[in-house]
Design goal:
Blueprint lengths: L1 H6 L1 H19 L4 H30 L4 H14 L3 H34 L4 E5 L5 E5 L8 E4 L9 E3 L3 E4 L1 H4 L5 E3 L4 E2 L4 E2 L4 E5 L7 H14 L3 H30 L5 H14 L3 H4 L3 H13 L2 E3 L2 H6 L5 E4 L11 E6 L2 H11 L5 H9 L13 E4 L3 E4 L2 E4 L22 E7 L2 E9 L4 H12 L3 E5 L4 H11 L3 E3 L4 H13 L4 E5 L5 H6 L2 E5 L4 H6 L2 E3 L4 H37 L5 H20 L8
Parallel strand pairs: 11-18, 11-20, 18-19, 20-21, 21-22
Antiparallel strand pairs: 1-2, 1-3, 3-9, 4-7, 4-9, 5-6, 5-8, 10-22, 12-17, 13-14, 14-15, 15-16, 16-17
Helix pairs in contact: 2-3, 2-5, 3-4, 3-5, 4-5, 4-9, 5-7, 5-11, 5-21, 8-9, 9-20, 9-21, 11-20, 11-21, 15-20, 20-21
């Protein structure tokens, strides 16, 4: 905080104002006239930003704000020769403003910390085979970039050979993963294998990490629902105070027989204590602090609304693959003619689905160079096809010939991709996915808070049952297509339930967009992340539970702040009406309450659930 007071102009103005005010009080007993002039100078420094905000916002929004009330109160104090009280008022008001900016700055540090994880230089391969050091902003799609062993990847791209990549910064998984030739790798991850070259697939502004940073920035600039309500109230309230205060002064002067100076003094006190400074600061600093806390813990909120609504969730619907499981499939059984298998592997090379990756990894030694590509179509939630070959789940093959009864086989809880040629099922590939242990812990925690967990999966009933039993999920639905998931979301919302949806794939995007809160996994598709309100960067559902408890705490603190700030305003107005509150005390109690609600919100920066 001391560094902020020195480094930022607003902080320096506050520091100068405080020193001048202290000097004014120090020499007041010996030289009242000089101290008055010093207080005037202090007021210029202390009131500069408040005056600027009052004028700019009033003109821009065509409505007065709380800064205007404070400036009028300080000017009123000067008019009746209470410059010291005016300076004291602006010290505390400007201090509260600086403190709020400091909270915003602390929240912005989440962005800086994320940005510091990314290299800003890259070693680009030139056309003659040499290397040049360039800024990552200069890299274009198609450029070649050398990444040495142990270095961070500066950009997203396609790798030219097999290597080990540590993706902990994105997925939270500490074990490095093997990336094969042609696989996409991401900026911010670390090369733990030998040196390789990547072909740039996204410009620096479009990388996964850049999108994460952009989400945090957007969240900080989108107010929560409560903050919006308070902002709407502010201008109406300020206008009311501006109308009531002159009437109050006139009533004391004409009806109660007060002198004009005394009536004006009491009016200035009313103007000060009735200002909604603390109320205005009740929500925004707390929300920014919680968004920053979430970012540090691997949860990105796109706006304050999502942070608030999360605490009201009744049902969390979740996809299975890549969300409750790792989405890293391993082939455990298959029956398929080798020539058709080659075509299947060729088709799956063109899909980014985890099942496709599992098939490609298993049969990477097959020579598919002779396969001629035709139009490959991905059918969301079902499978893929090329020409007369189709690969996908059981529901894709209703009415197809099945001479070997593959569609009727027992799958023992595995995920099975069936293969057809010319409307006849000709084989299958069985795969097994690994369940996330962190998901089990998070689900049990949500159950303790009476949150219903509902697993929605396109997989078959036996696979769904096996995963649900292991994770202690009491409600699940299997063999669903994207429309079924969206229909489930809509039905629960019509029942008045607040529902969150967790997913990571293209097939989850409609449900994510329609739910009260869409939650995507950081390793998921870009369309899933675009459709969601929250992104779990490190693929750990325990992080979501942390944010759920953080959201509960946020709402508690906002309500505490609102109740406290209104109570203080009512109490101070009452004391002023009875004539037992002077301006210095009114300033201290009123602006002190503003500082207290900001500090109360600032506590969320360090919130820990466990």
């Amino acid at each position: 905080m001391l560094k902020y007071l020195i480094s930022e102009r607003q902080g320096r103005f506050l520091s100068i104002g405080i020193l001048l005010t202290v000097l004014g009080f120090a020499i007041s007993p010996s030289n009242k006239n000089l101290s008055t002039y010093i207080f005037y100078i202090a007021i210029l420094f202390l009131g500069y930003y408040a005056t600027k905000n009052a004028v700019v916002d009033t003109i821009k929004n065509k409505s007065p704000n709380v800064d205007l009330l404070m400036i009028l109160a300080a000017l009123g104090a000067i008019v009746i020769d209470y410059a010291s009280e005016g300076a004291l008022l602006l010290i505390i008001f400007a201090g509260a403003e600086v403190l709020e900016d400091y909270v915003t700055g602390k929240s912005s540090n989440a962005i800086k910390e994320l940005m510091q994880q990314l290299p800003d230089k890259a070693k680009r391969v030139t056309s003659d085979g040499n290397y040049e050091i360039v800024s990552t902003d200069e890299l274009k799609i198609g450029d070649k970039v050398l990444v040495s062993k142990g270095n961070q990847l500066p950009i997203d791209g396609f790798i030219d050979r097999e290597s080990l990549i540590n993706e902990a910064s994105l997925t939270g998984e500490s074990v490095p993963v093997t990336k094969s030739e042609g696989d996409e790798v991401f900026a911010g991850t670390i090369n733990e294998g030998n040196s390789f070259v990547i072909e740039v697939s996204k410009e620096n502004k479009d990388t996964v990490f850049s999108n994460i940073i952009r989400m945090v920035e957007q969240a900080q600039n989108r107010p929560s629902k409560k903050a919006k309500i308070i902002d709407k109230i502010e201008s109406t309230y300020v206008i009311s105070v501006l109308v009531v205060v002159p009437l109050f002064i006139l009533a004391l002067y004409y009806l109660n027989g007060f002198s004009f100076e005394e009536a004006f003094y009491r009016g200035i006190v009313l103007l000060t204590v009735a200002s909604p400074c603390a109320l205005v600061a009740s929500a925004t600093p707390a929300t920014l602090s919680s968004i920053s806390n979430g970012a540090k813990n691997g949860i990105l909120f796109k706006d304050g609304r999502a942070m608030e609504v999360l605490s009201d969730v009744d049902i969390i619907a979740t996809d299975k693959t890549g969300t409750l499981t790792y989405g890293e499939f391993e082939v455990v059984d298959y029956k398929l003619d080798e020539e058709i298998l080659k075509t299947v592997v060729f088709i799956e090379h063109n899909s980014n689905h985890p099942i496709a990756q599992g098939i490609v990894n298993k049969f990477s030694d097959l020579d598919i160079s002779e396969i001629k590509e035709s139009n490959i179509e991905e059918i969301a939630g079902k499978g893929v096809q090329m020409g007369d070959i189709k690969v996908g789940k059981k529901t894709m093959f209703e009415g197809y010939k099945d001479p070997n009864k593959y569609l009727e086989m027992e799958n023992e809880g595995n995920t099975i991709s069936f293969v057809s040629k010319d409307n006849e099922v000709v084989g299958y590939i069985a795969l097994l996915d690994k369940v996330r242990e962190t998901a089990k812990e998070a689900i049990n925690d949500f159950h303790k808070d009476n949150i219903i967990i509902e697993m929605l999966t396109g997989d078959n009933q036996k696979v769904a049952n096996k995963v649900a039993q292991y994770l202690n999920i009491r409600h699940y639905r299997s063999e669903l297509n994207p429309e079924d998931k969206m229909k489930f979301i809509e039905e629960k919302m019509q029942e008045g339930k607040t529902i969150a949806m967790i997913g990571d794939g293209i097939n989850d995007a409609p449900a994510l967009a329609n739910a009260d809160i869409g939650i995507s996994m950081g390793s998921g598709t870009s369309i899933a992340m675009e459709s969601s309100d929250i992104v779990i960067v490190k693929n750990d559902l325990n992080k979501l539970y942390h944010s759920y408890k953080l959201s509960k705490k946020l709402n508690t603190i906002i309500y505490q702040n609102i109740i406290f700030s209104i109570a203080v305003i009512i109490a101070l107005i009452g004391l002023n009406l009875f004539g037992i509150l002077d301006l210095p005390l009114g300033v201290v109690f009123h602006e002190g309450s503003t500082i207290m609600v900001i500090l109360n919100g600032l506590r969320l920066l360090g919130f820990k659930n466990k």
